[in-house]
Amino acid sequence: MYLWQQKHCYMEWKRPNTITGSAAEGSKYFRREDIEDRLWNEIDKNNHVLFLAPRRVGKSSIVKHMAKNNVHSFACLYEDIESDSSIQDFYRRLCRMTYVALSVVGKNKSLLSKWLKKWRITSIGKEKITIEKNDLDYRKEFFDLLRDLQVQRQKIVLFLDEFPDVLWKIYKRHGNDDAEILLNDLRTLRQTKAFKDVFVMVLLGSVGLSHIVKKVTGRADKVNDLHKEYLYALKPTQAMAFLDYLMKDATMQIDDETKKYLLDKIGHFIPYYIQLTIEECDDLLFEEQRPELTKPDIDKAYKILLKKHQYFEDWDSRLSKYFPHKYAYLSEVLSVCAANNKLTIQEIYNIALSHKNETEWKADLDDILIADGYISDEDDQYQFNSPFLKDWWKSRHPII
Amino acid sequence: MEIPTSHNIKVMNTDIIQYQNANQSEEEIIKNFIVRQKEFARVMDDIRSTDEGSSFQHYIFVGSRGSGKSTLLRRIQVEFSLEKALKQQYVVVNLSEEQSAVYKLYDLWDYVIRDLNAMGFNIEKKDFRSYAPDMKSYTIVLHSQIISALQTKKKRLILLIDNFDRIIDSVGNDEDASLLRELLMNHKDIRIIGGSTVMSEHFWKYDKPFFQFFSIKKLESLSLEEVKKLLEFWSDKMHLPELAVQINKHPGKIESIRMLTDGMPRTMLLFVDMMINRPEQNGYHYLQLIVDKATPIYQERLSRLSPAQKKVLSELAYFWDAASVDELIPKCNMDGKTISALLNQLTQSKYVVKIKGATKNLLYRLEERFFNLWFIMTQGGIQQRLEAKALADFLEKWYDQADIQPSSGNNPYGIHSWTDKKAYDHWMSGSSSDNIPIANEVSQTAYVSIKNKKKTDVLKRSDQERFTSGFEEPIKKAIEDKNYVKGLELIQNAELDEGVRNYWMAIYYEHQKKFSDAEKYYLHAIQLGNVKALNDLSSYFYKQNKIQKIRDLFNQISKEMIGLFLKSYRQFAVILYLYSGKMDLFIKLAQEELTADKIVLDEFILSLLIHKQNNLVFNYFEINPKAKEHYKPLFYATLKLKGGMDQTLLKMPPEISQNVDDIISFIRTKQDFYYG
């Protein structure tokens, strides 16, 4: 027991194994073997993947684990690339990641030595480097690198997180042309033997990539060769296993019936929201210095969370501000979805007709409500990603 | 050890409200860290349980000025310096002082490097000119130097940043924020624990880089228990046990100040300081002193506004409740469009918060409630200050009940007693006894005090006759001290009116819980014309929910007695008529009481609500705006009980919402008691 605990009469308290901000790594990561297997399967087949899910659903955690724990013979590397805002940035990163991936597996030492000198590479610790030479054309460097790599057999898998953000930034900062260059480059590379023999790209992003590509090029075909993989919520058995994983060795105790009550309360089993609720329950019990979690505790914690995330208002005002002519339709879709917990595609079309939105109803659904993380669909059933947002929306826009 | 004298107490007091906790030693920081334990525990438990290969949580504590953010960060820092295991794994940089100089992300890393070098890390200084204009590369290189240095020493960095929201704002657009997030995602060597005065949109907007990236912990107002802990700590530290006594003696004072100010540690420490230096003030006086201390801060906040913005803000503050643009038009002498535009500006700069209801009409109120109170009490007119006083007094009285659990029913009629001062003022004013306080022991004390000051000529003859002998005070004291033998002796031997003597015999038995004997003497006293006995016995039956006994009692007493009772205890009589179902009489008398120009007793309103007269009370508040302002919590409790008033309820000042809930909870419990 720590001194401050003794002084303030707190019992020794072990917290649940949660993490709700950064990606989960190491002992924090709960295996999603089904998704991992599906992704490895596509990678094995040399397919480039677009891995999609709204923010906070857990995709970064999955690919980070895959990158660190690959039992295949690939050289894998994960990076969050969101700060890239130019073609130069993007290709410099690709060069750097390629260097790291190869140096980790200890191959192609002569190539590595050549690049080390040319790019002025500095090591910054285990498996991390930085490239200091700024005045090279790194797009050209990368294409040269591809030629150099033709003879080697090492497959490199690059997990690039927040790719749609990068594309959007390049588009905003440098215009259509540069964004199209990047898209065309990547499409060409994906179909080029030299690239395909060496690299597999797994691009991570929210489901808005098609939406961004359409804005940039007017079409969605630049990315239609990517294999799309979606990340869904946990199934009930997985959710229960996840709870057990979180609660292992924790002071807080939950019996099976209370676990079921907690999961029923949350409804949509996204790890982030399960963990938020667990953390809040743990805080409550810690304050009262008792370990047994009860159903009233869960109700109380849920109410507190609903109040804490009081800035749901932005989710509402954003729609009315940016889509004033579509707001009535979008709002009704969300209201009915909140009231009924789920909504089918048929019901959505029905709502669209009542708002005379026969032509753009599906695009609005995909590009606004799904792209921006309000709802997601599983087997044509649409539901809110966040149970808190759902309950807030229900109270703000009740169906009378 | 030196015993504090009144002189050196004043010298020592600066320790209590010391703001610059950076100047305290590590031991002092640990010893003086009383509140925010839960937040501290959460972070430290998480840090201790994070193994080397795992990712970890970054934290932001969100709290207004004076909420204890800096102290909490400093306490975390001290924990690392003292615990060997943590010291081996981590190095801590606390950027609380340098953050005003952070302009870009590379500045942040630059200051981190400087602090690490001060700890012997020897990180080479890079010249930014070698990288310009590619400052992103420069930023990445600085970061990589930090990572490299940490890995060489096999340490991870705990980066404490107070006012993290300001850093995010000052590093400019989302570019630096994106880069920071990317660096934190790609490297596990730096953990950020920060403070923020506002819930920045960077943390919750979906399209912002840090959307739900940080674990946000809000530093709320201190609870009553936490404030008590603070008081007990300082009572012990300053060797002032009387301070700890105050906590139990006057919980109402503490609660009213806690609720009406921001309830933040810094404000509560001001309060502690004042309790030491100026004991025995009432809650409103302490509030005035605390508000005065806040004047420089709030004047500075006001000075940043344009005259038009100040006008709108001031008029909004004077409403105290949330207000609409339409309500502000006649007060501001501006058109609605102008006011809306100004309110939008004030909302953007976090002076004002917008409240959306079910209708299209928006409501507005000042975001910082203590700031609103400051307006009312320092800038407002007489009416506004009276309202503040009324609210402070109401809260103090409410929470000064010995036992505020609704089921206690300790007080026979009212929920609390009037203060001596108030009763004294009442007697001194020579006003009629129509609105006489019900807690008669207090009026007796006041009479004794008046008698001692030889001012009994201002009292009415009927009142004097009740206390002719001057023995009643000692009788009362003997009974309260449980010296029943002496009490009985005094009662039997005093020169008392027989009605009064029987009255005191009843009190004598009632104190010993011999209720049937007490009842007997009360009845005798009533027969002898003692109207106080009638009040006390009725109160006792009422408290016991003995409705038939009350009916029987009133059936057997004379019309003259009823007249006297109505004269002296009118509002209680109205409640008894309501309770016993004599609706004609109740309605007639209630209409006479609940008029547009009369402020009735709060106990009266409460009792009407207990007996389900929500609409009657609501109508009273509608015709009597002064009463509405005077009894703000009761007004909002009435709205909640009435139902269907959601739009109006949005106007409720958040600082009274707990009290409103407590009132409703009390009413519901009483309703269960009376009606099952």
Describe the structure.
The complex is a heterodimer of chains A (400) and B (676). With 400 residues, chain A is α/β, with parallel strands linked by helices. In chain A, 55% of the residues lie in helices and 11% in strands. Chain A is built from 19 helices and 10 strands. The longest helix of chain A has 19 residues. Chain B is mainly alpha-helical and 676 residues long. In chain B, 62% of the residues lie in helices and 5% in strands. Chain B contains 38 helices and 7 strands. In chain B, the strands form 2 sheets. Chain B has a 5-stranded parallel beta sheet with strand order 2-3-4-1-5, with helices on both faces. In chain B, strand 6 and strand 7 form a beta hairpin. In chain B, helix 25 packs antiparallel against helix 26, helix 26 packs antiparallel against helix 27 and helix 34 crosses helix 36. Chain B is elongated. The two termini of chain B are 60 Å apart. Chains A and B meet through helix 13 and helix 15 of A and helix 3, helix 7, helix 9 and strand 5 of B.
CATH architecture of the largest domain in chain A: 3-Layer(aba) Sandwich
Count of β-strands of chain B: 7
Oligomer: heterodimer
How many distinct helices of chain A?
A: 19
Overall domain count of chain A:
3
> CATH topology of the largest domain in chain A, what is it called?
Rossmann fold
Give the percentage of residues in beta strands of chain B. Answer: 5-15%
How far apart, in Å, are the first and last alpha carbons of chain B? 60 Å
Q: What structural class results from the helix and strand content of chain B?
A: mainly alpha
Largest sheet of chain A: 5 strands, parallel
Question: Which stretches of chain B are poorly predicted, pLDDT < 50 over at least 5 residues?
Answer: 1-15, 402-442
Spatial order of strands in the largest sheet of chain B: 2-3-4-1-5
Greatest interface and its participating residue counts: A-B, 59 and 59 residues
